[in-house]
Amino acid sequence: MISNSPLDKTQPTTRDIREANRLLVLHQILLRTTSTRQELSQLTGLSMATVANLATDLLEEGLIMEAGMAASQGGRPTAILSVNAAFGACVGIDVAETYIHFDLYDLALKNITEHQVELPLTRKEPQDIVQAIVTGLDSLLAQAGLSMEKVVGVGISIPGPFEHSTGVSVFAPSWGWVNVPLKAMLEKEIKVPLYMDNPLKFNAIAEAWFGAGRETKTMAAMVWGTGVGMGLVINGQLFHGASNTAGEWGHSIVVAGGRPCRCGSCGCVEAYIGAPGILQTLAEIDPQSKLLFPENQTRSIEAIAAAARENDPVALAVIQKTATYLGAGLSSLINIFNPELVTLGSWVADSLVPVVLPELLKQVEQQSLSQPFRAVKFTLSDLPRNPVSLGAATLVLEEFLAEAGRQPVMIR
Ligand SMILES: [Zn+2]
Predict the structure, then answer these.
(1) End-to-end CA distance of the chain, in Å?
(2) CATH code of the domain in which 31 resides
(3) Which of these, 22, 37, 148, 273, has the minimum number of CB atoms within 10 Å of its CB?
(4) Could you tell me if 225 and 352 lie in one domain?
């Protein structure tokens, strides 16, 4: 279960425990689609009496509903519980440098509809992005025939470092933004609870709820695209760090004094294994390579993967180098963090993980301590197409459910 609450809570109160139990039960109902009280008791480790009490409250509030009957172990029919999907809707928005993707989900996190607007690659003023988000959100709701009153919250991912506590976009290099109070600007326009963060965090939430991280407590969800980074989950909670930059692993150093990186430093992981870094490696090995399309990163990465499968020596050399750099970065990570799982996601991972993984594992084994290496699994992400907006909507749902545990929900 992912939560945005701080890790260093003092002693939990009865109310905290009740809230946590309630989330535990709701989480299981959501994940399994339908469950009986008995199943929920087994899955959560809570007593039948606790589950029954929580279910009664949730039914009264309209958050869950009875969706038929099943035979219980004693032969007596027992109610099947499911989330009342029509209770409300959550919105997840992925603001990227070249597009804004909008997803509308019901309360069972089933996608209702989606909408996308393309953003030309030009400098954007904050007000332009606010306007594009507001207009796109209106279009999304119009597509579904839904009014804003039904929306329980909106989650928005913003590229670059985001100051969680103040709602400030610290730095968006492509748009030339420094310290933009984006959340406050959006709150003037969008009158439902708003949750904002960067894509690394939302991707990790989606991995932990719906991806390979479902069964793990401590994991790193790596995003491997043009940029490189991670979201960290510790003891089932998203880890923010002191100023919400935990997981900026892409800017840790793998080659001291190495290639310049767009963050201003030199020798970062991203400078070697981000898509432009891989193209640079290819150009260093063979400047005339037929696999090199400097204007089209996607085409180049796909060409390298295809050629490596055919044992093309240049492609294999690129894979070898990439595995060495990535292996060094991941070895430091697992030595420090000791995770159960590292998921590798996004478009470069989709193309390269199948060809790079054997060499990568060899490199990590050589460069890390044996204990954390034995404890960790590496896997290609199996999440659906836009995990960032899914993660953003999931956080909205989680915050809504947690809030609903603190005070009675208004049934609309
Ligand atoms: Zn860097």
Answers:
(1) 27
(2) 1.10.10.10
(3) 148
(4) yes
